[in-house]
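Cross-posted from the bioinformatics board.
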Amino acid sequence: MAFKNYILVCAGTGCESDGALEINEEFKKQLKTLNLEDDAQLVTTGCFGFCAQGPIVKILPDETFYVMVKPEDVKEIIEEHIIKGRPVERLLYDKEQAHQKASVEEIDFYQKQFRIVLRNCGLINPASIDEYIAREGYGALEKVLFEMTPDDVLSELEKSGLRGRGGAGFPTFRKWMFSKGVESDQKYIVCNADEGDPGAYMDRSTLEGDPHSVLEAMTIAGHTIGANEGYIYIRAEYPLAIERLEKAIAQATEYGLLGENILGTDFSFTIELRLGAGAFVCGEETALLASIEGNRGMPTTRPPFPAVKGLWGKPTVINNVETWANIPVIILKGGEWFGNIGTETSKGTKVFALTGKIKNSGLIEVPMGTTLREIIYDIGGGIPGGKAFKAAQTGGPSGGVITADFLDTPIDYETLAALGSIMGSGGLIVMDEDDCIVDVAKFYLDFTVDESCGKCSPCRIGGRTLYNLVDNVTKGLAKEEDFDKMLEIAKAMQKASLCGLGQTASNPVVSTLKYFKDEYMAHLEGRCPAGKCKDLIKYTILEDKCIGCTACARKCPVNAITGVVKGVHVIDQEKCIKCGQCVAACKFNAVLVS
Amino acid sequence: MEMIDLFINGIAVSVEPGTNIVKAAKKVNVNIPTLCYHQDLDAWAACGICIVKQEGSPKMLRACATEVTPGMKIITHDPEIIKVRRTVLELILSTHPNECLTCPRSGNCELQKMAADLGIREIKFAKRVKRLPKDESTPSIVLDPTKCIQCGRCALVCQNMQGAWALEFLNRGENTRIAPAADVDLIDSPCIKCGQCSAHCPVGAIYEKDDIAKVWDMLEEEDTHVTVQIAPATRVAIGEAFGFEPGDIKTGQMYAALRRLGFDAVFDTNFSADLTIMEEGSEFVKRFTEGGTLPLITSCCPSWTDYMEKNANDFIDNFSTAKSPMMMMGSMAKTYYPKQMGLDPKKVRNIAIMPCTSKKYEITRDENMFSTDQQDVDAVLTTRELARMIKAAGIDFANLPEDEKADSILGEYTGAGTIFGVTGGVMEAALRSAYFLITKEDLEDVNFTAVRGLKGIKEAEIDIKGIKVRVAVAHQTSCIEQVLNKVREARKAGEETPWHFIEVMACRGGCIGGGGQPVLATDEIRAKRTAGIYSDDEKSVIRCSHNNPEIQKIYKDFLGEPLGHNAHKYLHTSYQKRIAYTLND
């Protein structure tokens, strides 16, 4: 290393919104003021993944991991750590524990992770192609252009066992092989960066933290199947990722790694961005292609598959960001190496966006086959507040729940499907005892109903009708026979919907109804065991606990609480909107939710 | 051609590559139920009704949108498939108003039929009908989004077949609805009023604007003399509403029915089609021999005229100024006819029975449609409306005399007049008379078969005694730009025009496939109607317009010469540029 220290500042969207840019500026300023620019190199990186603890600053070479850093901490980090070599203990992760975990290797959040896709995130400056190249970047492309035939590439890909990370898990090499096999004057490579699952942000973070890995992979695919044009379809809500991609494309073009005659060969490949307006259905590949073509983002039937007849009717390889990010590593390390990671049917790693009732929420990458227990308890640090684990939702709105009984199931495409869920893009939302399972199903269905394109009737009408039935459950208006109707609609949606959105939209309902029938039944009796469903709960003030402090009455937004100072307060049930503010305001646990 | 062998319900079947499962299943006598699918259109795969299984796969396929592959084993029905179809249909019905009794499509609604076929007796899902306002802004069609089942046919027809791009999907999910882009009214959109949307709609969500009550009112007026004209293409289609085959010629029965409905005189638009040929043919010969803007482009299709005025108004000078046969009939019915019959022109009414919704728009399009000091044509009924009127009156159409004749002096027609109803017909009729006008001789063989048929663009070079006339015929509006662009290219390059004479009809097959004809026409039906028209031509004694004795008489007694003063006053029109979109604030 040329510098004594490297200061890595996370500039992923999460940390950035918490002030990472100010921190970065402050470092720049301080290093200049203290004349340390020759000693310490400041690197603005992509996401570290440990978003719950952001903004994150990491110091190399000693791997010190500072969390929840504020701009005003910068001076201290420089004066103590950079100048005197003493870690700023108060900023270390898990500082309350006796044994202070200072470096990354010691942090439980990272211990069970295995980073292929996120290999460069949090390590390199995504705005610098040189840093990517220094980490073997574009080495795979070079190898492909000069040492491998397209068939060699396909063979490595086949050996790797890589499957699409966008949700369905279709073998990637087969897509490429189909496209390669079709005679056509024009072929296309498309990157699906239309990440839309609520809570999922691995694609965004990958593009923000390591944009060149995707560009390199798409170029490799172009060379393999004989395509000269690539498109990245990315939602306009990802401005930082777009900015970094644009910069990366410009740099790669300048370096001769994109554009005409790449690395002096006769192979040319260009990549353009297409910004989506944020319709969830445009993550479905046929709708995505329609959108690129300038048409309304509506799915069409498959077959024909895009690999044979895609963009403008030409063979098109479309993979999602995470899939692409695996490619250069597979080329460099070999398919066999990759194939040794994971389970029998699902190779490599999977990135999950771990959110919900979990201590260490963030972005994690684990080998396929890791159990939910390892993810939630070892990496995620368990449920906050000592609450009990209830279920985890995988696959976002298209997936289902996994209950405590299956915490030790190794996660891969097949085991999740067997449990009635799907891998999906890798959203993983943890629920605890305070979450109402019917409410959760309703939340997801609300999302898909809203995002339905409206083209096919099973999804358009079935979704809304199913939602209304679930809504009735949460209001205590449902009858037991409604469950049959719900399952009937769910089946029609699964079998007769045109695209994945409609085919999977009922999964949250079907899965929760299967594993939590009791909780559904309780709602029929007018009871929400988790105390979430507003129509089934009542807030009352306990006479023996209320001291008449008036705090609740002052907080109540609809003036539903009356009572004199030092007298017992009463909630007017007619006026109460069940917002729960009184519960939060009461210091004496005098508000009962029943 | 290499055929594809597959199995449907265990029965081996061999079909051409590219065949979808719906068509393949017909070969083994299975009609897979479909709702959104229509042969004219690429499968849109919206309704979810035509699902089938492929052996060994848990998924269900859309039969309409799935092409067969070799060795495929398809199951078109089993208890599970039927159950899913029923659920999907019940879901659709739960959002449909189910007001069949008062719906214009009652009796020939595809949704109604499917509910009957699948034996739906109750809808177990909560009723959720979204009431939306109707668009009644055009004189031609009514858009009732409340009844729409979002099958997408109308938008596909409008965009892909007709190239008009008036209808589009707005919003998404359950709020998806069909309307012109930017949500303007149809009248302010590029809509060309062709009514193909209404002819393809499986339900009563788009239909012709009903003018039957208006016509009954006119028939009720005292002292008036109500005349009526029937368009060429109506006679080969109206029978379908009474159980006859498409293409069965019902001219006599139509005359008889109209007399029994109370019309005072029954004329035939075929007569005024002959008149149009005299004017348009002369116009062509004049431009061709004396010099004038070429190519000459036919103008009798009001949807095409509307399209041109909005989207191709660089061709205004190429348009024939001859009015359409319907409008010529209107002006003659209110001038020549009362003069000869001693009637007060103000008391004469003219109603037109048309295969077309756009004709409802044409009668008030501009001041030229009021050439007789009053509105030349008072109302237009589509073939569908006339059929309803006949049914309402209880007239037994099937048993009416077939030999009844139209009334003189606007009733006699030639084979040239009748072929106006099909694509290529106007061109063929014009060529028959142009030959005479140029050579002063009659043709030995009047059949110009090169311009016939359902091909979208047809070209021919006609030899008129050594003079080469190049013609093109286009139908189905989406085919037209291609023709126009060739002319534009030649124009730009300063080259000679690729064609001297171009015929355009907006609807596939010409007027026999018009938007006002009995609904749900397919190419098979169009071909039968076309055959009906040509057989009417063949059995005509006179097959060239200029030989029609009533035509010769009208020029002698009233009009003078073709393109003369009176002809100009009553039989010719002008065109203007119009904007395709009118955006309100």
